[in-house]
Structure prediction request, 617 residues.
Amino acid sequence: MNRIAMHGWTPLLVLTMVLSAGAQVTDLDPTDQAGAQFGHSVANAGDVNGDGFGDVIVGAMDYQNSLGVTTGGAFLFFGSENGVSATYDWSSTGDNVAGSEFGSIVAPAGDVNNDGYADVLVGARLWSDGTYTNEGRVYLYLGSETGLSASADWVADPVDMNISGNHSFSVAGVGDVNGDGFDDVVLGSPQWGDTFGSEGRAYLYYGNGSGLSSAPDAMFDPADQSASSFGYSVAPAGDVNGDGYADMIVGAAHFSVPNSSGGYYHGRAYVYHGSPSGFSTTPDWFANGDSTSFFGWAVDSAGDVNGDGYSDVIVSARNGSKVYIYPGSPSGLATTPLWTVQGSSQLYAHAISGVGDFNGDGYGDVVVGSLSGMSSQGFLFLGGENGPASSANQTFSPGMGGRTFLCYTVSGAGDVNGDGFDELLVSAPGWEGEGRVSIYDGFDFESEISPITLTQFESDGVTPLATGAMAGEAQVALGQNLVNNGSMGGDLAIEIEIKPIGVDFDGQETQVSGHYLPSESAILMTTTLAEGAKHWRSRIVYPGNLGNSRWISYGNNSENEVDFEVPAVSTGGNEVLPVPAPVSGGKRGGRCGCTGAEALMMIGLVAFWRRRNSRKK
Prediction:
């Protein structure tokens, strides 16, 4: 094992391994029907059959039923230890109404009847009842041990007015907003209007033991402005204020800020906080976009992208080609965004979604779908202590060719194969005339270098240092045991954080390595630290722009359990002891700028790795 001694509190280790070409991809295109638009809508269905695997639902709004009538269709795919199969496990064409575009919207409902099985929603946005044109209808299908019910368990068409155009409504499960144990559902009707034409309205339905309420339990129309399109998008917000109740976000993509000298169609997004009585009719938060940006075109929960324990939300301004994330807090969402990203094409922000945790680092991740004709593509942004990076960690562009409308819709898929990493859905409803959906496996990087375990030694790097023990001298070797299973490549770095007992880990004052040759499998370096009891943790920084592993505390113990103690050592007044020259052509690092009367400590990040010929799952 080669060791490199370095100055500075820059504990690091880099290994070079062979990186797989990208996440594994499963393609779904089961309709074999021209013009079906399979993938016009996609969603994580939850676990509808209770087998422990996430399931996926896909809409094909121009699918023809068995009689050749263009009704639209919805298709469910069960997850399994092998992911989803190319053959669907359930399908429906709704009421078989011609031209209704059943499947134009699909969404998870949560568990509305609290039976332990996830339920799903399917929308037919141009459904008409003979009295009103293009009113739209939504259908609820309950989960069970065998999957979804064959026919709808509940339907709703509350708008009761003629709708022009083809965006009659949106729908989403928003979680348990009133804490009664049943998940709830919201419908958005952006073209609803009374005094104000196309003002927009949202309808809330509470869950109960048999499904959903037969009539709306609450209605919301705060815009009071013609053509504002409140309800253009609706989505769960998660729990943005940490009070234990689910919250809701609604977009009004065509809202114009009153008395604004900056034009019109800015767009606005509204958030409503859950409570024992549900939502107030007055929004608890709103934000506006720039003129003609269509802010609120799409909205969603981003998950917890910065790991502070509060849910965050993501909002797109499609015509402004910009995406925003607003962070949660005890008082709700911040008034200024935590993160923004600007695209170069007009439709950069056509589709957005929270993904869940794609790379298993404990932070929520998000995806943006750019609809740019022949060059449409998706962009994955991984969360971190400060939110997502400013540039995409991964780009999805399968190179299907032609006008496929790739990334027309994007969504998290949940964990469809039970590996602990959430998957991603990317649709191309124009693919070869029928449509296709691609499922990208979450980055299971840790399986390529598993098991990740931390070890600590005396300064010789050989003699174990027991948990909680006083080091024999002021030099200690800390390390990770890593096994390369043969699929990783590029340089890996190690990041380390050491804190005195009583000081919680916060991701601050850490150091990350530079990059080293594959032969340099271990590095030792000296630094100065104050005497006393310490706890430490480490994680791996993946190659390129692929993010980090989860943090691992030594022995997986509690963060405030003593890992080792540093004795008081006199160094003659902050004198740094000489550091041996690196071996095997290693590089030197910089000093950390430590000050004060501190003890000297050597931190060695020691890794043991070996290649294997096949990936170990």
Residues 470 and 565 are 5 Å apart (CA to CA). Confidence is low (pLDDT under 50) at residues 1-22, 483-489, 516-526, 570-617. Helices lie at 445-448. The two ends are 27 Å apart (CA to CA).
